[in-house]
Amino acid sequence: MPIFEYACKGCGREFEALVLPTTGAPSCPACKSTELDKLISRPAIKSETTHGLAMKAARKRDKIAGSEKAREQREYELHHND
Measuring CA to CA, how many Å separate 42 from each of 14, 18, 23, 33, 56? Predict the structure, then answer.
């Protein structure tokens, strides 16, 4: 996939963009500027440490999502007495 990293010269925001021949030049999602610096992408490195960190982040994300889903379910049940 042709995903590139850019830094906006206008607002300084860094972002990734999928660039295809049919999509044209990307623009900053924050300020819509097309004056961008293309950044050098860092390769992904897989190791025991990075895998452990990724799993810890995933568990934390899933716990938060589960809590939010449970809260939404409780609110739904309170407002819908069937």
Answer: 14, 16, 24, 24, 22
